[in-house]
Amino acid sequence: MSGSELAARVRELLSVDAETFREEARAEAEDLKAEVKSGTFDNTQALVGLELELYGVDSRTDSLRRMPRSLLELIGFEKELGLHNAELQTSPEPLTRYGLVAQEKELQAHVAPAQEKTDAEDLQLVADGMWTVPPTGETASEYLTDSIEQDGIRIGTNMSDAVRYHAMANTDYPSRLALDAPHVSLQADTVMPESLITSIQPHYQVPHAPDLPEYFRYALRVAGPLLALGVNSPFFPPDLYDDAPDSEILADAHMENRIGVFESVLNPPPGHPEEPKVCFPPDFETVDDAIDAIANDRTIVPMEVATGTRFDDRFAHFRHKHGSYWRWVRPVFDGASRSGANARIEFRPLPAQPTIRDCIAFEAVFAGLMESLPRREHPVRTLDWETAEDNFYAAARDGLQADIDWVTRDGARTTVIDEICGELFEFARDGLELRGLSTEQAREYIRPLRERLDRRTTPARWKHDHVAASVEAGVPLPEAIWGMQAEYIDRQDGTLIEGSFADWV
């Protein structure tokens, strides 16, 4: 698509009347509430799914590579924000032993042949929290901020041609479009800096839609500890760092910078009267409250929504609002058919992981917790929301070394990470057993995360230790970061499909 064609489509999108869109979405929300009350969105069994984001690198230099759109279509991946991004979504499967096996096999069945095809282009697909080596001949700053003005519309040069991404830079919503992290600062004209980060997003479909707030409450309480186990982005591309001593950059590094990137790029500046959209969400008292929260959320890019024969096309405007309801945990209501309609929880805090097995481990543990904690009425539900939020941001800063508050099964308070994660694993095992897995099968899914706890080594800690050792040996920080990234990519090349991060350590 040419720049003028893209600009014309963005301008057309921006001409949609926002108030009319809001009225349509709110009316659909009332219809949705009625369907939820009638049982349409209930399921006889819990279902799980997963989204996996990757990025492309040059297999000879480890530098970031733009992926041709034709190649993405050939390997069956979806385009994402940046030209270097690719996304894969699994089909929903029952939360059973066979369903989890199917999830893993589906990822392997797509990623393995995709790697074979990209290898022919000297391109490697990488699952990682944040890339650090910019394209050959460019700085990260140049790549992330390059844009043009076409017919009065700001267009990001290295963004995909998905119109909604470009429209976001041309609305009146005051997104900051900046990076704000320790010793890092960057200002852009588009949302392109968000393309630094990649994630996995497990989904869990609740059996009885009106009970979603109870599951959601537990999902918020486990967000901090699960993020602490999953952190994977302690470093930015080196040219984004301000002039500071290497030792200070190392000492002040957050273990999971993806959280801050998403918030500082898309939210308004601090102190702005507009409410932030990327944030830790509130508890909901009722499922109607959850639906209202989405319906009343500020829509950045209203659209003329096309409808077809899907059941949830009745809620097309409301479904569109899901896309910019940027909460770290969010409720989703959709379904292509009436029989397939579902209410689910989308768990969004986790960065992309080193291997497929690690991705599945998080999917299984999260789903197991959603099965067990509500059924066993675990008292962590009484943990106040403010503490759950503090836990989340502490985990992003410090990973497994974070100060996290927890309420144990006996109602006692603890900050001991072994006790906290020990209970997570115990109740995840219980939840998986409730879905028919044997004890050994459940433990096998949990084992990759237990290894991280036992060794106190997350992917972020592995990266940080690697870079710190190089700097201590006299290697300048940029070279140390690139050396770590090369080692990460090399180790993943042999373990992404069938290994686990535990093999690295």
Structural summary, described in words:
- By secondary structure, the protein is of the alpha+beta class.
- The protein has 17 helices and 14 strands.
- It has helices at residues 3-14, 18-37, 69-75, 97-119, 140-145, 163-167, 212-230, 246-252, 257-266, 287-295, 316-322, 356-376, 385-398, 417-434, 439-455, 459-472, 477-495, and strands at 47-58, 78-79, 85-89, 93-94, 123-126, 147-150, 153-156, 178-181, 184-187, 200-205, 329-334, 342-347, 406-407, 413-414.
- The strands form four sheets. Strands 1, 2, 3, 4, 5, 10, 11 and 12 form an eight-stranded antiparallel sheet that branches. The protein has a two-stranded antiparallel sheet with strand order 6-7.
- Strand 11 and strand 12 (342-347) form a beta hairpin.
- Helix 2 crosses helix 11, helix 7 (212-230) packs parallel to helix 13 and helix 12 (356-376) crosses helix 15.
- The protein starts with a helix and ends in a 10-residue tail after the last helix.
- The mean pLDDT is 95.
Overall 3D shape: globular
Using the CA coordinates, give the radius of gyration.
Answer: 22 Å
The proportion of residues forming helix, as a percent range, comes to: 40-55%
Quaternary organisation of the protein chains: single chain
**Number of structural units classed as domains:** 1
Number of strands: 14
Mean pLDDT: 95
Number of helices: 17
Low-confidence stretches: none
